[in-house]
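Q: Could you fold this chain for me?
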Amino acid sequence: MAKYLLLKHYRGAPAPVNDVPMEKWTPEEISAHIAYMSDFANRLVKTGEFVSEQALLPEGTWVRYDGEGRPPVTDGPFAETKDLIAGYMIIDVDSHERALELAGELSAAPGKDGKPIHEWLELRPCFAEMPTITE
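A: Sure. Below is the predicted structure, expressed as structure tokens.
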């Protein structure tokens, strides 16, 4: 089994076919989208391929270490994940091909007018174990 991260983007990815921002959807369209995502995750729980998922709020803060006792907070001038990443799902599958299949299916979540979004998802493999550095 290999773990993959499926990243859903607010922006930064190529535009989906059904490119209507969620704030322009009806409450019923939002509910249908969320139900699709939930049903998809529940099906993967049953097959043993589900690891984790989480939708993310757009709020966030950049934090960096800047010396002992001084945790400054900064917020730019770079693209921020709060503007880019809408959520993620981690799956554990038998092959890269299965990960591609599932990502394609997740891309079909309904959007405006109940039509599939055909959104681009970023598929990234996770380290099976942290690499060992030897000299």
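A (continued): The radius of gyration is 18 Å.
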